[in-house]
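haha ok so turns out i had the wrong file open the whole time. this is the CORRECT one, sorry everyone. sequence first:
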Amino acid sequence: MPDKKIHIIGSGLSGLVAAIVLERFGYQPIIIEKENHIGGRLQTKKIKGYQVDVGFQVLLEAYPKLQEYAKLDQLQLKSFEPGASIYLNSKWEVLGDFTRSPKLIFRTLSSSVGSIKDKLKIFKLSQSLKKKSIGEIFNSPDLKTIDYLKDYGFSEAIIDSFFMPFFGGIFLEDELKTSSRMFEFIYKMFSEGKVSIPKNGIATLPKHLAGQLKNTEIWMNTAVKEVKSNKILLENDEAIHSDYTIIATDASNLVPNLKNQKTSWHSCDNLYFITREKKIDSNYIGLLPQKDALINNIVFIEEKKAKKEGHYLLSVTIVKKHGLNQEELIKRIKKELMSYVGIQELEFLTHFFIPKALPILQPVEYDIMPSETLLKDGIFLAGDQMLNASVNAAMLSGERAAMGIIELEKLNY
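then structure:
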């Protein structure tokens, strides 16, 4: 069985996990990657010597598949406090989960972010979701998150000042139209584990997964034009025999009968600045809930080069649509950082516009049967766009596609 030719298109989390699973069953897959690096949407770059992620991203350590496939102690994770710092009424207020960090109880209860009733409801929601299984969450009624929050009884004030910017930054949309199933799942993960970023950037995770591969080839700078049963056609028109192919990327441009089934995507802007002025603790994500602000969230990062120079790396994320060119956007963001955050000295470092940041999915699912990843003869699909927009879904779908091949081989053996 293991002498079968198996190719995986895409070296993101889905493709890497698929390769790990196939290796465990004795196969030697080949990963085909069009870029000169692995990782898919998880990228870290060096800009003028500073280490920056392409889009600020965190890892939720409670993700089941992250715990299964990654050795978290090897990722050198820096954890955030379980809460957020929110700019409200001309000052920074903290709203946190004091059941996990008791030192936050006074700051949370005394903050002007929401009422005491709202804070008790947040506590109640957190406790109820800890008891609710993931399966129960994804079998729950599927509402828009904004409707779910209103039905739960949260005030407009707490929705606007906390839930909208916090989960808007996670879902990358500013109306909270994302499924309430996704909201409950992410909220549960926040409640049950740490929220972290790797010391050496988000690309640490795909590199860590790739480091587990012993019998997998990775072909870099190799673009695929089309995938057919038992054959892969490269952009240079070279044809490759493939007994099984896992497409762990957007398949709509690779398979003829999927041409009209393209995935829609949320986009975002991510800007980085260098500053000496740290206005909030780097252990918190800072939220700007003001209606007229473009900025959704900011994070002060203690990056190695910046720290050596006595500076901080400042990440700014924007999810609202704006229509500004880069020069206009930088000017606008500098003005907001000055007026809302109080930062006077800023040096612009870089700007990433990410057109395909998160897939827009409706409905969302948690899991899929291995057989359901089979598109047609010998072609399997993987990627978070098959389930839900999360690191966990990306890894799980890769596992399921690999198991689809393994189960099919057992039937044919």
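The first helix runs from residue 13 to 24.
again sry for the mixup
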